[in-house]
Design a protein that fits this description.
It is a single chain. This protein is α/β, with parallel strands linked by helices. It folds into 2 domains: about 10-205, 2-enoyl-CoA Hydratase, Chain A, domain 1 (Alpha-Beta Complex); about 210-264, Lyase 2-enoyl-coa Hydratase, Chain  A, domain 2 (Orthogonal Bundle), CATH 1.10.12. The protein has 11 helices and 9 strands. The protein has helices at about 35-45, 70-75, 80-100, 115-120, 150-155, 160-170, 175-180, 190-205, 210-220, 230-245, 245-255; strands spanning about 10-15, 15-20, 55-60, 105-110, 110-115, 125-130, 135, 170-175, 185. Helix 1 (about 35-45) links the parallel strand 2 (about 15-20) and strand 3. Helix 4 (about 115-120) packs across helix 5.
Length: about 260
Amino acid sequence: MTTAPPVVEVIRPSSHVAEVWLNRPDVRNAFNEDMIAALASSFAGLAQEPDLRVIVLGARGKAFCAGADLHWMRAMAGYSWEENRADAQKLADMLWTLDQCPVPVIGRLQGDCYAGGMGLAAVCDVVMAVDSMTFCLSEARLGLLPATISPYVLRAMGQQACRRYMVTAERFSAAQAQTHGLVHELCSAEDLDRRVAELVALIVANGPQASRACKKLVQDVCAAPMSAELRSETARRIADIRASAEGQEGLQSFLQKRPAAWLA
């Protein structure tokens, strides 16, 4: 009896690096309830690994993610309001799990990135995309709206871009996605893996706890008003990490012109 391949594949090139692959290439990695559950479970598990320094989120096949699976959508057509709410909550919770993962996440994007796929892209800390790919917030075309992904896409692209692309449901290019902040860097399809590997190496070379602390700092400071409390909190955080074993090792290795211990 042949075992079906996992809808999400987790590969460990080393103890410091994890690769999470959407693995439904025959349907352009479209979401269904199994993929949503597998993504949530995979990232929840990886978040508990203290030695993990970076996660690469990629997709098998020609597309990154084409949104919702047609068979799944047909099933949802007969759902009650309560069933729709419960189903949508699972997607919302999965995106939250990815967004709140303490480990830096690199998005490796190619092909189409539509609807829920844009939510996945928006929760990544660094997004590397092939320059020929296309993006789309396509929900309105189906009489729907991108509600569960909206907090992350709005944060990444800003209000004005989302006002256009959510209401028009038009496709837009990788260059436009970069202009609006969803994508950090574009490259050719041939260079994608090389550039992702270079980003992985950069993050692995940093202080492991410092990288996590930087990610948390961005999340917390962006959500906080300018205040005396914020000044106090940021001062506390730099004092904490300066006094930590990793901070002390980083400073000493710099002053002594030697590699830091975490590079061993």
